[in-house]
Amino acid sequence: MAQDTMVPKLNFEYWLDKAIKWGQATTLESQKDVCLHLPQLQEFLRQICETLKHTDSIVAIQQFPLIGQLLGRLCWNPFVIGYDESQKTLMWCLCCLYSSEPQNPVELKANSWIRSLLCHLVSSSECESNEAETSTFISTLGYTSADYYCHLVKNMVFSLVTELKGNQFNGLNIQGRVSASRVNAVSLFCLPLVTLPDLTPLLETLLLYHGGASEEILSSQFLEAVNEAFLKKKISLSDSAVFSLWLRHLPSLEKATLHLLDQLVSLQLNSLEEVARVIKDSLLPQAASHPAIFRIMDEIFKYAVLETDGSPEVMTIIQVFTQLFLQAHQNENKQLTFSLKAYFPCHHQPLVTALLTRPFELPAAHWSQHLKNISDMLKALVEDTNIRSLGDLFEIWFLVGRFGEWLDIAAEQLLKAAAEPNALLWLLAFYYSPHSGNQRTQTMVEAQAVYKDLMMLFSCEVLSVKDLEAAVQCVKDIEQCCNLHLATHLLTNFLLFSSCGRTVAQELIYHIAEATDTSKEVHSLLIRTAYRINQNGEENQRTVKLLNELVKKLTLNI
């Protein structure tokens, strides 16, 4: 951001010169000059504020080296801060300069200075005596100005928190005496100060406050500001306060969900462990334990899938999120836990129950039969004459897709222990080709051809690239995109999990991804497989090592 574009250097020098001449406006001449220039000063401060909102605090100080000196002098001018709008704008500017994660002593010192100024601004609005009398009073108490104002703000916060929580009188809670307009006013008072650490107890109390009103009593600007500060990690709030924020202000929940998706899609995904860490830190899987939050996020995820045409990265993110949601749900206090039916009320419940079963909850020897049961239920559901609209079909497909861990296991089981391969092939064919029966039938035919070729090679002790030419060519010749992705899935699994396939896996998987333009799909499959092996505690270090090498190689070409 160019300094001379948004906030001209000349203006900084001009207003700093004015602030120095004004001092603390003790003379009649300086007071008149402040009043004369106050409208222009307010407009200048507003421009600074808008610029700082979109600039990192460190960058802002580097771009505008005079800003600290200017704001500091203005904050101590009673005629400037006596104008309510100027005072609020100065607070906003200081909050934007506050570093949420100070990296060195200079930033720590700057934060301390900013905190003192904010405390001074907040407390000065409460003081009716003039500055000289206040300074004398502070000195008599033995405090420095900074210490005094910090204590004053802490006491103010404590007083407001006590007022909102309600006093106990003879065991009776009298919270109802706090009017809705009073609570709204307090939330507006907090607006420019949300990043001030001393204010955190008040923020949490407001977010958790429910006075019995039928409509939201907190300012929507306050809720948006708190959510923005939380997403940018400028403040730290308790889990319960964050959950309450998202429940009482749905635009904040939507913004948090989209922020998470943007954050994850922009990452270079080398492992799902990193994805899982980012998702957990967002608190959204934990918040989704409330069905209302889950369903809103579910709709956002569906929209993201439709917008990206089923992007493998987006589907992988949703699958990891679903696993973390289930973990959070299991860790909830059992007395407060909602039934899982509450999250999927419109779906065929036996199918939901089967999909919700995590692989580690069953012996590996039972996986194939469990998948056959899922396939049979799904097939009966899809072929039901009542399932006519594309919307209904998409809902079923998305339900299966968000539990994609079972789909990956189905492709693996086909090569290991599939007594009835057609059921597992149909399950994969539905996922890759859900739209029409005729197209799915063609997908099945081509998948069976690839599967047959692979199984003929599965028992080979030694395998060369030449031996796989027929299967690879079969994959290359497939014209339908959905069929191509399914065939690539089967072939990749064969190379990963057959003892003979591993010897040529690196060369062939990379070649297939390049030749068929499926690098993203193969990359997502590889990182999902590595994550599943690690999560389920499978001891297969040779496969994990191979997966990691392939992921690194493919990452360079995505």
What does this structure look like?
This protein has 558 residues and is mostly helical. It has three domains: 3-151; 249-328; 346-555, no CATH class. It contains 30 helices and two strands. A two-stranded antiparallel sheet has the order 1-2. It is elongated. The model is unreliable at 1-5, 126-134 and 167-175 (pLDDT under 50).
Could you write a compact summary of the structure shown?
The protein has about 550 residues and is an all-alpha fold. It is built from 30 helices and two strands. It has a two-stranded antiparallel sheet.
Count of strand segments: 2
**Helical content band:** over 70%
| Shape verdict | elongated
Structural class: mainly alpha
Largest sheet: 2 strands, antiparallel
Secondary structure tally, helices: 30
| Residue fraction in strands | under 5%
Topology:
Elements: H1 3-6, H2 9-22, H3 28-53, H4 57-63, H5 67-75, H6 78-81, H7 84-97, H8 105-124, H9 131-141, H10 145-165, E1 168-169, E2 172-173, H11 180-190, H12 200-207, H13 220-231, H14 239-248, H15 250-265, H16 272-281, H17 284-287, H18 291-307, H19 312-331, H20 349-356, H21 367-382, H22 390-402, H23 405-416, H24 421-432, H25 437-458, H26 469-477, H27 481-497, H28 502-516, H29 519-535, H30 541-555
Antiparallel strand pairs: 1-2
